[in-house]
Amino acid sequence: MIARSEPTCRTCGRSLQGVQVSASRRSGTTDELGPDEPERESPDGSDLLAALLDGMDAALCAFDADGVVTHWNREAERILGWGADEAVGRRGLAGWAVRSADAEEVEGRLLSVMHAPGRQVHEFALLTKDGGRVLVRTQSAAVRGPDGKPAGVYCAFSEVHAQIDLERSIALSEALFEDASWGVVLVDVDLRPAVVNAHAARALGTGRTSVLGRPLGELLSHGVEELESALQHVLAEGAPPAPAEVWVSVRAKEGEQRRCWRSGFLRLASPLAEEPVPLGVGWLFQDVTEAKQTEQEASLLRFRTQQLHRASRAAAECEDPAEAATVHLDFALAGFADHGLIDRVAGGALTDAEAEGPVRLVRVAATPSGAPGPSRLAGQAGLPVRYAEGHPARQCVERVGAVRASAGAARPEAAREWALARQWPPDAVHALCAVLRSRGRTLGVVTFLRGAGRSAFERSDAMYAEDVAVRIASALDLAGLSDEG
Questions:
Q1: Residue 224 half-sphere exposure, CB side, CA atoms within 13 Å?
Q2: Residue pLDDT, tens place only, 15-72
Q3: Cα dist. 226→202, 230, 231, 271 in Å?
Q4: Is the distance from CB of 186 to CB of 268 less than 8 angstroms?
Q5: Is 109 helix (H, G, I), strand (E, B) or coil?
């Protein structure tokens, strides 16, 4: 796309196409561009018009019907180095602004617009005062006199690289808001979306127009405070040096969706103001939820593998196999659960056939229910724990597999009653029971408990608990063999 710029007034922004003005060849003031036209008695208006033309962002020169330069503004002087007093009054551009060999072609193309409709765009090289050459893009149009006949030509021009930069900026902005494969949102100073591309609208679970002007809190249920804090920081301090990863929960028709967005922020300021005036923040983001979840799972797996390795080495130094079982339990609790319990089947290990009947369990070891600390051996008296019918630990033995239980979103008092009824510490909210198996027999159950500050146990947690249970079961089986010996 080629963006064609018209000479505009820097103060009022109005197009100056067709304005019939020229710089006076004697004094530099402006008058009507037309042969033998008397000057108007309005010096104030002429001075104002001259100031407007000289204040334009585009370089502007004008020719009369004979090809004599009648106007040359300050931007033209900046680009080529020739001042208005040196340019105005010259016939054509040959020998000073254009090479003599190229002058006929350039002037012909410029002046031909007097007899053609509309505007014409050309590119050619102009000479600077110091002898250099500048490639410019020109936009020229005819200036008509009071009788409607061509009276001259005005030509607005700019350096080609500046025009190309402008076109690239426009093309980039259009591509970002149409075809970008990441979300792009322009947020105003009130932290409300002003422009949203299609990718961002899909990520927010809404349409491109329906999201405009709405508070971010209506679109996101969690993470909105962190996001708004980042936007306010960018407005006050500028863009951060690196992208930030923000976890949010998006309100969608199918329910809340937790997502991780890797976000970059840019402070937007008006290019037309002398001092930077913030227009808002450009927010670009990409959904990296799957990558972050994979990374977290890999990190968690590495940690748990290391814990199993450390526990095995520490347990190998224990003379008492029962103590080795508590070592495995203590190492497993790190980052996994708040409490741990080991219950052994009363009367010795059970075969699969024997496990089908009523099961009684005796507490072997437990972590302190108050302050954190290492597990302690218990149950010297051998009294069964008062587990009711259907208790998760008993179900674990009967099924010979892991069992998960949770109080869910119950009120604190209800959750406390739920834990106490199952003979667990009162702050327990989530439970995971794994069966202790060794030599084809069931030895007991290990129970892991989490408080309200943790999430419920998942399938991957059950797999880890079963790995720990295998090591605890081996230690308890060895302890039983030692007792028999």
A1: 15
A2: 344 333 333 333 333 344 444 444 444 445 667 767 777 777 788 999 998 889 988 9
A3: 21, 6, 9, 29
A4: yes
A5: helix
Cα–Cα distance, 362 to 346 (Å, whole number): 6
278 exposure class (CB count in 10 Å sphere: 0-12, 13-18, 19+): middle
The terminus-to-terminus CA distance of the chain in angstroms comes to 91
Q: Which amino acid is at 422?
A: R
Strands 255-269 and 59-64, sheet pairing: unpaired
Contact 471, 308 (CB under 8 A): yes
Neighbour-count burial for 249-272, b at 16+ CB within 10 Å, e otherwise: ebbeeeeeeebbbbbbbebbeeee
Nearest Cα neighbor of 229 from 218, 219, 216 is 216
SS3 of residue 82 by DSSP: coil
Helix (H) or strand (E) holding 284: strand 278-287
Asked whether 344 and 393 are in contact (CB, 8 A), the reply is no
CA dihedral sign of residues 276, 281, 282, 284:
positive
230-277 confidence digits (pLDDT tens) = 999 999 888 889 999 999 999 877 778 899 999 999 998 876 666 667
Cβ atoms within 10 A of the Cβ of 2, count?
A: 10
Neighbours of 358 (CB within 10 A): 7
197-236: burial string, b at 16+ Cβ within 10 Å, e else: bebbbebbebebeebbeeebeebbeebbeebbebbebbbe
Compute the 3-state secondary structure of the chain and give helix, strand, coil in percent, each to the nearest 5.
35, 30, 40
Burial of 191 (0-12, 13-18, 19+ CB in 10 A): middle
Residue 411 has a CB neighbour count (10 Å cut-off) of 9
Determine which helix (DSSP H) or strand (DSSP E) holds 448, and give its type and residue range.
strand 441-450
Q: Coil, strand or helix: which one is 379? A: coil
Q: What is the pTM of this model?
A: 0.60
